[in-house]
Write a structure and sequence with these properties.
six-stranded parallel beta sheet, disordered C terminus
Length: 301
Amino acid sequence: MLTGVRDTGEQDMHEVRAKGILSAQNGMNIYRGCTHGCIYCDARSTCYQMQHAFEDIEVKINAPELLEQALRRKRKKCMIGTGAMSDPYLHLEKNLRLTRRCLELIDEYGYGLSIQTKSDMILRDLDLLKRINRKTKCVVQMTLTTYEEDLCRILEPQVCTTKRRIEVLNIMKEEGIPTIVWMTPILPFINDTKEHIQHLLEECQKAEVYGIMTFGIGVTLRDGDRQYFYQKLDQHFPGMKERYIRTYGNAYELPVAQEKELMNLVRRECIKAGMEYRTNQLFEYMHRFENKLAGEQLSLF
């Protein structure tokens, strides 16, 4: 239920009092829409039926209340996920602090956490991530799409660049918090080179990430997303839109020409570094709850 619209200065904020917060798979999205400005974002697609501009964020203002109710009702501890559809660290989060309040509840009630973001704002909540990870498991997922800083500022203009995200990954390593990197999408004719992929994999290896998520090497485009993406290609890469149309037409899946070669590179480097690359195993790891205190509790008796 939409309860009100507030002008935050940069964009409108649509306050919603939601009826529920957790999906059947225990995932939650506090926000809907995004202000990171990524040119390829699938969440812009018309199939998601947003009723307002994508940058005018819909906020589940009662998310902490709903989450506490849901956690109290659960009979078995599990992993709680967030960030799959909308980044939990949008610009509004700095003041609203809804994500932080939800993390406090996850910590208080002893649940695990799997959280995905592109933002270094996650470091604000490092204290909570560490507390959760001491008791159970906290998995931080960070998206890396390009190694080149200037290109990153074009592809993902309103969020910290790859260099800073790699710093975040290394901080998580130092704190013993497991990480997974979403190395997707890789855009045809833009960042789809062997050298580019190799650089990203080397940084992931240094940060000792648990695994690399790819879903193949390429990008997907749907109505709504496609138009915005092509508009940005015209703005930053003249002639590239026409090349996409010639190569892919109106296809949903746009794999890069050398996908097989690049996927082999990912597999080879992951195996060598001990990083997981199999999608099913990565999802299984993120959904598997672990009780790190069980052994300590038993040792008292």
